[in-house]
Amino acid sequence: MLETDVAIVGAGAAGWSLAHWLARRPPGARPVSVVLLEAPPGPLRPPERTWCYWEPRTGPYDAALTTSWRRLRVHAPDGHGIERDIAPLRYKMLRSDDFASFVARLLADDPDVLRLQAAVETVEPADDGAEVRARTAGGRPVLVRARWVFDSRPPRSLPAARTTLLQHFHGWFVRHDRPVFDPGTVEFMDFRTPQPEHGLSFGYVLPTGRRHALVEYTEFSSQVLTREEYEAALRRYTAHVLRLGRFEVTGTESGVIPMTDAVFARQSGPSVFRIGAASGATRPSTGYTFTAVQRQTRAVAAALHAGRHPLPPPPHRARARAMDAVLLHALDSGRVDGPAFFTRLFRRVPVRRLLCFLDGRTRLHEDLSIGLHTPVLPMLRSALELPRLPRRSFPAPDRRHPRPSDPVETVEIP
């Protein structure tokens, strides 16, 4: 049996982030012993992900970034482009494997941290703490007794909600033989895509050089697509909107992100807490998660270093969650046109204020000023309907669908 102060279950964005902040112990802080349990290679380990977020020019993970940008562009459905410089902020791209390697190097020099590859089977309360039972890839049972357990695994089912949409996407890592991409600008939302009958869709382009980019097709809707439908959408977008011609696909990336007004529990036992997306860190209106995970895990680490009770703080403020609930219902009901809504915000609201709003860091008067740039009557009607809507249970989406496993291929569309 292993005994420790903290057991972290799951080595995704939240698990690695909490381990990182715990290892960065400030002078005079209380030492905290940690066991990080990560799933062995196989179906329980998530595929590599790309996380994007914005922050000032320098940040704690800059050494692991793929790249960053200072300009964002939105294309309206009619083709009109709106480009904004977000300085002093930077829009940053971080690959999950690079992030894991970065944190692992930090943990390698910390005698208080033990990494363990094992599939967690149960987390149960115990005297003055909790017990984690797991099994290694070779079948050996593992028992960890911890004072505090932080569980970042996705829930088997989503909490009951009034509205749940899915942000689902499929992307190609593209290599071109000509310098066709602008490495200084992200195509943040490109609404020059055929819009579904229910929800919205857009293209998303993250250039990592003049000849390389991640090109994604994204939808906000109630149902995921088939692999063939995603591929067809990407072929249309790269051929008829981006007009790329012939290029190579060197890899793929896919994901499904619940966008829900459900209330996620942050505690599942006296000494067991949920962190990350499992605790509601995903912003319901946008799907962004990484920045909220940093706020939450940094606060937990600070509490542990100070010897305080480490209940994770709410990832988002109540006012932000309330506004997101209204927007989700307005989009789901079809009362608000999604492409027009987001294009209008990007066109009329100063971009740094808008990004702060999307992070949930604006003040009340700023929220009100941004609200005036939305379709006020449809949003007000949606807000008035919310209290009468029943909360229903939704199954948790298969976040591995469709799992990226493509070989390199060449795409050529005239």
Q: Which percent band covers the strand fraction?
A: 25-35%
Helical percent range?
25-40%
Briefly note the structural class of the backbone. Answer: alpha+beta
Mean pLDDT across every amino acid position: 93
Largest sheet: 8 strands, mixed
Span between N and C termini?
63 Å
**Extended strand count:** 21
CATH-defined superfamily of the largest domain: FAD/NAD(P)-binding domain
- How many structural domains? 3
Provide the CATH top-level class of the largest domain. Answer: Alpha Beta
Which residues sit in consecutive blocks of at least 5 with pLDDT less than 50?
400-408
Radius of gyration: 22 Å
Number of helices: 9
CATH topology of the largest domain: FAD/NAD(P)-binding domain
CATH hierarchy: architecture of the largest domain: 3-Layer(bba) Sandwich
Task: Give me a quick take on this structure.
This is Lycopene cyclase family protein. The chain has helices at 13-23, 96-108, 227-241, 290-305, 318-333, 338-348, 351-358, 364-371, 376-385, and strands at 2-9, 34-38, 50-56, 67-69, 71-75, 81-85, 89-95, 113-117, 119-126, 129-135, 141-151, 157-161, 164-175, 185-190, 200-207, 212-221, 247-260, 267-269, 272-274, 392-395, 409-411.
What's the layout of helices and strands?
Elements lengths: L1 E8 L3 H11 L10 E5 L11 E7 L10 E3 L1 E5 L5 E5 L3 E7 H13 L4 E5 L1 E8 L2 E7 L5 E11 L5 E5 L2 E12 L9 E6 L9 E8 L4 E10 L5 H15 L5 E14 L6 E3 L2 E3 L15 H16 L12 H16 L4 H11 L2 H8 L5 H8 L4 H10 L6 E4 L13 E3 L3
Parallel strand pairs: 1-2, 1-11, 2-8, 5-14, 11-19
Antiparallel strand pairs: 3-7, 4-7, 5-6, 9-10, 10-11, 12-20, 13-16, 13-17, 14-15, 15-16, 17-21, 18-19
Helix pairs in contact: 1-2, 1-4, 5-9
